[in-house]
Structures are given as structure tokens and as C-alpha cells.
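Human: Respectfully, please carefully check these C-alpha cells:
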Amino acid sequence: MTRSTFAIRKTVLIPLALLLLLLLFIISYGMIWIEERHHLISSEIELERTEFSFLRELDEESSKLTNTLKLLSKNECLNRHWMRKTWDQLLLCTNEIQQDLYSRMEIQEFNLISPDQYVVLRSSILKRTHEYIDNFLITRTVNLLEPSAGLRLESNGRLLFHAYAPWIINGEVVGYLEIGKEIHDVLDQLSDARQVGVIIYANKSLLNHATWERWIDEQDQSVDVEWSRFQDFIPVVYSALSHEDQLIPKIGAQLQTLEDAIAPLLFEDQHFEIGAFPLLDEGGGFVGKVAVAINSTQAVENSQKFSKLFTLVTTLFGGMLLLFFYYYLGKIQSKLDHSIQKLQREIAVRHEVANSLKKFSEAIDHTGSAIFITDEKGVIEYVNPRFIALTGYQERDVIGETPYLLNTAEMDQGVYQEMWKTVRSGETWRGDLLNRKKSGEQFWTASTVSPIFDLNRVITNMVSINEDITLIKASQQKIQFLANYDALTQLPNRRLFEETFADSISHLYHRKNDHIALMLIDLDHFKEINDTMGHNAGDQLLVAVAERLTKAIRKGDMAARLGGDEFTVLLDRIESRGNAVIVAEKILQLFQPPVLINGKEIQITCSIGVTLAPDDGDEEEGLMKNADRAMYQAKEEGRNGYIMHTKKPEEKIDS
């Protein structure tokens, strides 16, 4: 071997080996990153779909229970013996119904409630009782005289789905019917349908330790649920899981530190993706979390096998290529031969890179994500088939154009500016974008935009990977609206009102000479209208009242429905009581015209209690009590008027 031959080999083969190692690392890392990103997005979508399925299952369960209550309210045996007060016969009827409900629907609770909300008979213990019932569902049923259903977490950790319905015989409300069941079957159906493990963890702060321990001792638990093992959340209901006695505590511990939507969990050589969403009770209160365990063992193993195989094949190919060049370079005897061989190597490398790019392009063409690639100025050079299917644009429509053709006026332009700024600085941008299809239809995507560099770290292209999340966004918006607004009147509900009221009180200290007026409004004789014309007419009347209240206030003020026929008005930044008086009189004036319902004019009036902050107090509870007392004083003094609360109440001012 001559010195020139050794120098040629060293000069060519060492850089080539380093280049191959670098390409192997970049391609391997890219493939692994794409696989992990795809796996993460798939798990997040599965979590969203599981949450949607869970809410849908609860809605279906609610419909089943309320329909069952409607049938029970017409049961001849129940109605006859209830009206005759023949308790022994009523117990027999109830026992037969209870057994039938349990065999068909696994309903454990069936109770008869008196008009004054006392449980007269519990079928689960087959005896008469005298227990007062006071919760959100029964209150709603009593006020609206319509069925209500929802989840309730008891102090012992028992999670039940309850339903109430008015018991009406011959047009008279003679009491209320209640049925309840545990939700194990809901979780089992959800687990079987989605092929995931589902565990409900209750908020420990809502449970009583002693009653919880007694309840656990009575149950046949396959999981050792020890109170001290769980910090903030403790499992109360779960679907079938392998190794559940060890896995459930680990998932519970994971919930304490869960920051992202999805977090990995490795347990006995099995890979899981753990996610959770909030569990709300009958009144919309947070009572715990629903954890979802997605077994990703097979997907992880497949990814690892693919990575190993890809690395092995690439390494063998690179080694063979190096051996080939080593053998060939040994024959180079002159600078001319060296130049020719160098050119041949460059051609071979370019050919291999072209093949790699072709394979990568084919992979992009068959992915489930909508992908487009632009040049450094943002002009589109490539779109994959999924992009065409999602947007409705053909390739000829977008090549040479910019992504601006997907933009919508509703999307904050600052988001686009931040995206381009981030990518052109050499970093990857991730976020949600509202886009427009060729048809004009709007859709949401979870987008990842990354720069592509040349060997000198100069940006040559940009690639955008987009997942369609339109359905997920729609579900999130619906849930957000239902959490803060009344479904009937579209007014803010009690929850949003209380948050706004508390916020206004907290800001009051920073403003001089400003007042807040709180008005509590109750409709006069609304129950009589409901009884004579029916609940549908009552609902139409409540909608009309909401419209009139909205007309009576300024844009920055709030009118809200607290429940039933009770409304409230919050006037922010007023100068004196006189401003509140003007609005109260305006409300009474707007109530004067009758409301046309089903071709009949209905005259409706209201009683208003008014209080001011900080004159009458600076605490929400105290101000609500002031307005409530003033409102009831207005009712006692003839209705159709308002009372302004003072430390010494003034005379009622009629409209």
C-alpha cells in the first residue's frame, strides 16, 4: 500500500463515514420523532373521544332513567295504594317493581317521596322512612315539575346516577319518584367500546373518612384501596383492568403530577398512556377525575422493532458502501483517477439521497395528517393527498400560492404573525388554527410548523403537519357554554353570575365613587301560569322575560337566571342609588306589555329587591341576603314593584 493510496482512502472514507452516520442519526431521529408525535396525537384524540363517549353514555342513561320514571308514575298499583294510603299493599307493589328494575336495568334505588320532599318508602330496605331530601336534582324537579337526572357523589364514596320525576295523579302533584343506580355498567360499556381502562377517582376532600371506611368494608373489593395511599383523589369506580390491584394506585399517583393531556406509564413491561378529564356532579360541581389508561404496549414494541430494523438495514448498507469505496480507492493511481472516482462517489450519494427522499415522500403521501411544504418565503411547493381531501383544494389550486388562502377573518392575526416569527427564527411552532376550506366551510387543525435547513443552517423550506380537530373543538365549546349559560334563556347561569359578582366586588376597592347595584327579581304568580298553561308556556314566558331584562340594562351590565323564575341583574360602575332606581323602574315598565303565548296574552309582573355596594355591604353573601329580603318585602306589599334595601327599609315604590 502506497502513501498516496492511504491518503486518498483517509481523505475520502472518513468524511463519508461521518456523513453516513449523520444521515443515519437524522433519518432515525426523524422517523422516531414522527412516530412518537403520531402516537401522542393518537392518544390525545382517543382521550377526547373517550370523554365524548362518556358524556354521551351519561346522556343516554339519563334518558333511560327519566323515561322509566314516566312509566312508573302511571303504574296502576302504585297510584291506587298511594292514594288509599294502604302501606302494606304499597310495599308489595314497590318490592315487585324494585326487583324488575334491578333485573332489567340494575337499578338499586327506588324511593317514594312526599310533596314536602320526605322519603316515605325506600324499596331497597322495604320499610317506610321519614328522611328529608334536599339536593340540586330534587329542587329542580320541584321547581320546574319535570324530570331531572345526574351524578351524585355520596360522602362514603359511592357514585350514583339519580333521577327524579314529579308524581302526578289526576292533574295533582301527589309526590315525587326517585330511582338510582351505580355506573359500573357505563364504565364497562365505555371500556369495551374504546378498548381502554377507565377509572373514576373521587376528590377526597368531598368524602367522609369514617363512612368511606364502613362502605369499603361492606364491599368485595379486588383492589386494596387504602385511604392513606392516595393523596387528593381516591378510586371509587373502575372498569376491568389487568393487574388492577397494582395499576390503579400507580395511575392515582400519576394524577397528582399530571401536567400534560397525556403522560406515559411503564408497568411490568407494559406501556400505558394516561390521561384524565374532570367529573362533574348533578349541579356542575367538580367531584373528581375520570382517568383513561390506553395500553400502548403493542404500538411501542412495533415502533422499537421498526427502529431496530431500520438501523440495521441502514448500517449494513453503509458498511457495504464503505467497503466498496475502500476496495475501489485502492486502485486509484493518479490524481485524474482520483477526480473521476470522487465524481462517481458524489453521483452515488446523490442517487441514494434521492431514493431516501422518494421513500420519505411516499410516506408523507400515505400519512393521515394534512401536510404541505413551502419555500423559505412561504410559497407552497407541495401538498399531500390528505391536504387535498381535507381542504377541498386541488394541487393546481395551491401550488405557487401562500397558506393565506386558508386563513379566516375570525382567527386572531397575531397568531399567524407569531407562527411565522417562530418558524423563521429556526424553531418549531405548535398550536390550533381556524382554517377555511375551498367551499368556505371552516375547520380547526392542531398544526405543527417546522423549518427545514440546508447544511449551512439556512432555512430552505417549511413543513406544516395538520390534524383535523373540528369535532373536538365543537365539543369543547358546547361544554364551555353549558357550564356558564342557561340552556333555556341563553342568559348567564348562577355559576357565571357568582364569578362575575365576586370579580366586581374585588375591583370595587380600586375605584372611587363607584357603586354596584344588585337586583334580585322574582316573577309574580309564575307557578299559576305553569299550572294552568303548562311548562311549555312557562318556558316561553321565561324566554320573553330574559329578552326584556336584557333590553333594560347597559352593554356592560349582566342579567342572569339563577333558577326557576328567579333572575338577577348586576349593574356595575353606577354613581348613586338613583341610577339603580331608573333601571328598576325601566324593568317594571318593560314588563307592562302582555306576552303573547299560544295566541293568548299573558300579563306578567315581578317583584324586585335592590341593594348597593359598598353602601349596604361589601360581601357577596350579605348583599344577596339584602336583595332577597327587599324582594320578599316587595311581594308582601302587593308585588309589581321594587324595594331599595336600607338599614331602615323605606316604603315600597310602585310602578
